[in-house]
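Hey, resending since the last one bounced:
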Amino acid sequence: MNAYLPILVLGGIAAAFAVFSVGVASFVGPRRANRAKLDAYECGIEPLPQDRAVQRIPVKYYLTAMLFIIFDIEIVFLYPWAVAFDSLGWFGLAAMALFIVNVSVAYAYEWRRGGLGWE
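The structure tokens again:
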């Protein structure tokens, strides 16, 4: 138990700091609410009124999400592979080459659909 005591103390300090910060901010912070601050903000898409909420979401939203997933999954698998590269041998190299080909296909699709262009 003595080995975990510093971790528990650090966790307690972090929790106390978080509670203290939120408490102080609610007392000290300004309270000038306006319509823009109270309005919902989601991913740069203007919020729609309830009667128009059945409209389709633009494809650009899904392309951005797909781009995030491509790079996120690539990093999640490349980092452990790079750490264990020496012990994996040729099989690890071939498996990662196949993975990179699959990711490249998704990346090429994203590029062709215009997901990398900032408008």
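The chain has a mean pLDDT of 83.

Sorry for the duplicate.
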